C-alpha cells in the first residue's frame, strides 16, 4: 500500500504537487525556460559563477580567434561553457546540502568536496585545451 501523495496547501486531490508535471508541449517548455533563467539569475549571485561568466564573455569570442578549425573553436568555447555548467551543478549540490541543515556531517562534506572536485577537473580540462590551442597556434 502506498502512502498518499503530498499536496500543496489549498490544493485539491486532483492537483499535482508540482504544477510543472501536468504541463505539456509549449506551455511546459515556456515554464521550464523561466525556471532555467531563474537558475542563471541565482547562479549570478554566486561569486565563482559570476567570475566564470565574466571570463566567458572574453574567452568565447577569443576562441573564434585562437581556434584554427571549427573543432578547435567548439572545444575551446565548449570547455568554457562546461566549467559554467559544472559550477552551477556544484552550487545546486551545496544548496541542497545546506537546505538539509547547518550541522557538519561527513556525507555532506563528501558531497560538497566531490562537487568542488568536479569544478576543478572541468577547469583543468578547459585550461589544458586552451594551452594546447595556444601552443599549436603560436609555437608549433
From TrEMBL:
<keyword id="KW-1208">Phospholipid metabolism</keyword>
<feature type="active site" description="Proton acceptor">
    <location>
        <position position="87"/>
    </location>
</feature>
<keyword id="KW-0479">Metal-binding</keyword>
<dbReference type="InterPro" id="IPR000829">
    <property type="entry name" value="DAGK"/>
</dbReference>
<keyword id="KW-0812">Transmembrane</keyword>
<dbReference type="GO" id="GO:0006654">
    <property type="term" value="P:phosphatidic acid biosynthetic process"/>
</dbReference>
<feature type="binding site">
    <location>
        <position position="46"/>
    </location>
    <ligand>
        <name>a divalent metal cation</name>
    </ligand>
</feature>
<dbReference type="InterPro" id="IPR033718">
    <property type="entry name" value="DAGK_prok"/>
</dbReference>
<feature type="binding site">
    <location>
        <position position="94"/>
    </location>
    <ligand>
        <name>ATP</name>
    </ligand>
</feature>
<dbReference type="GO" id="GO:0046872">
    <property type="term" value="F:metal ion binding"/>
</dbReference>
<feature type="binding site">
    <location>
        <begin position="48"/>
        <end position="52"/>
    </location>
    <ligand>
        <name>substrate</name>
    </ligand>
</feature>
<feature type="transmembrane region" description="Helical">
    <location>
        <begin position="114"/>
        <end position="135"/>
    </location>
</feature>
<keyword id="KW-0460">Magnesium</keyword>
<keyword id="KW-0547">Nucleotide-binding</keyword>
<keyword id="KW-0067">ATP-binding</keyword>
<comment type="function">
    <text>Catalyzes the ATP-dependent phosphorylation of sn-l,2-diacylglycerol (DAG) to phosphatidic acid. Involved in the recycling of diacylglycerol produced as a by-product during membrane-derived oligosaccharide (MDO) biosynthesis.</text>
</comment>
<keyword id="KW-0472">Membrane</keyword>
<keyword id="KW-0444">Lipid biosynthesis</keyword>
<keyword id="KW-1003">Cell membrane</keyword>
<feature type="binding site">
    <location>
        <begin position="103"/>
        <end position="105"/>
    </location>
    <ligand>
        <name>ATP</name>
    </ligand>
</feature>
<feature type="binding site">
    <location>
        <position position="87"/>
    </location>
    <ligand>
        <name>substrate</name>
    </ligand>
</feature>
<feature type="region of interest" description="Disordered">
    <location>
        <begin position="1"/>
        <end position="23"/>
    </location>
</feature>
<dbReference type="GO" id="GO:0005886">
    <property type="term" value="C:plasma membrane"/>
</dbReference>
<feature type="transmembrane region" description="Helical">
    <location>
        <begin position="73"/>
        <end position="93"/>
    </location>
</feature>
<dbReference type="GO" id="GO:0005524">
    <property type="term" value="F:ATP binding"/>
</dbReference>
<dbReference type="Pfam" id="PF01219">
    <property type="entry name" value="DAGK_prokar"/>
</dbReference>
<keyword id="KW-0808">Transferase</keyword>
<keyword id="KW-0594">Phospholipid biosynthesis</keyword>
<feature type="binding site">
    <location>
        <position position="28"/>
    </location>
    <ligand>
        <name>ATP</name>
    </ligand>
</feature>
<feature type="binding site">
    <location>
        <begin position="112"/>
        <end position="113"/>
    </location>
    <ligand>
        <name>ATP</name>
    </ligand>
</feature>
<keyword id="KW-0443">Lipid metabolism</keyword>
<dbReference type="GO" id="GO:0004143">
    <property type="term" value="F:ATP-dependent diacylglycerol kinase activity"/>
</dbReference>
<feature type="binding site">
    <location>
        <begin position="41"/>
        <end position="44"/>
    </location>
    <ligand>
        <name>substrate</name>
    </ligand>
</feature>
<feature type="binding site">
    <location>
        <position position="94"/>
    </location>
    <ligand>
        <name>a divalent metal cation</name>
    </ligand>
</feature>
<feature type="binding site">
    <location>
        <position position="28"/>
    </location>
    <ligand>
        <name>substrate</name>
    </ligand>
</feature>
<feature type="binding site">
    <location>
        <position position="35"/>
    </location>
    <ligand>
        <name>ATP</name>
    </ligand>
</feature>
<keyword id="KW-0418">Kinase</keyword>
<dbReference type="InterPro" id="IPR036945">
    <property type="entry name" value="DAGK_sf"/>
</dbReference>
<protein>
    <recommendedName>
        <fullName>Diacylglycerol kinase</fullName>
        <ecNumber>2.7.1.107</ecNumber>
    </recommendedName>
</protein>
<feature type="binding site">
    <location>
        <position position="116"/>
    </location>
    <ligand>
        <name>substrate</name>
    </ligand>
</feature>
<keyword id="KW-1133">Transmembrane helix</keyword>
<keyword id="KW-0997">Cell inner membrane</keyword>
